[in-house]
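Ig-like domain-containing protein
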Amino acid sequence: MIRCKMAIARLVACFVLYSSLGHIPSSLGVILRTTDKIVWANEFEPIELTCLIESISTNNPRIEWKKIKNGVPSYVYFQNKIAGDLENRAQLREPANILIFNATRSDTAEYRCEVAAIDDQRDFDEILISLAVRVKPVVPRCSVPEAVTVGTSTELRCLENEGFPAPQYRWFHNNEELPQDPKNSAKFANSSYSINPDTGGLKFRRVRKEDAGEYYCQAKNDAGHAQCPTQLMEVYDVDILGIFLKVFGAVVGFLCLAVSICHSFRRGCFHKKGHNENNYNWPAQNSGVEYGDADEGHFRHKSSFVI
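Structure:
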């Protein structure tokens, strides 16, 4: 009996001490907590945001949920019903949790649970939860060159811009995944490629015959993955015949031009009389009469002279 009295006295003393220091026992105030302050969900799958009431004295507290996106708040649960863009897509579950039936990418935001208890000494508490909805990647856009020459450089590209968070990229050659570092694989140790998993680029510094084949890219994040259709890349040796034909064509073109210029010179298209060129004035022909010199004093008849 004495021990019980002493225990009661200690409890009373502790209460007085806490009250004098400004501390309020949890039974006299509303206190909230959550299982996760940062929540991830997959698109089109259900997710529950927890708002647990650890202590409360008020029988019918006022519960509200707000969605805060880009700094602008809007109601999610107000006056005992779901509101806003979650209407018909969510429900309140005891004690104050919000269950979203099919989360979408537009649901990515911060959510604030507020509980007001007028009968409690601490009559209000709130808790903030961040929701991020993962989005599965769509089929990426892939660019694979149809044909390249041995020893040249080339790049294969892969891009997807719907997935959230941003996906990582992987490349496959003849249905076998290419390792990020070819030096770590005996099969690809002599390859000169490099893969950027963030941008989806596959670069070859020097293409080999062994690099020919079918390629496809895969974009993947925590929500899932998607891949582009297979595309064929062919690798050719140096085109000796093509180079010879180009050189031969250039030589033939040059010869044709030279012949054309020579022919034009022969026709006099480029002839121009020079200043130093001699001009010969031949004497005019007489019409059958030939006059003698002035000192002869007479003229002579030619055979063509007619009397």
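Confidence is low (pLDDT under 50) at residues 4-9, 11-26, 273-282, 284-307.
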